[in-house]
Design a protein that fits this description.
Blueprint (H helix, E strand, L loop, with lengths): L4 H46 L1
Length: 51
């Protein structure tokens, strides 16, 4: 890479950090959505039992 290594390696590092951040955020959103879905399903089931 020669003289361009000073630009290439930080770019690789930035991409890795961004990919980890996107993965973590996606994982957190998935867990939050699953919890919300479970809560809504239980509320819906309770509403159907009352009728």
């Amino acid at each position: 890479m020669g003289e361009y290594a000073i630009f290439v390696w930080p770019s690789y590092a930035a991409v890795i950090v961004i990919m980890i951040a996107v993965g973590f955020i996606s994982w957190k959103n998935k867990n939050r959505s699953e919890k919300k879905l479970t809560d809504l399903q239980s509320k819906f089931d309770n509403m159907n039992k009352q009728e």
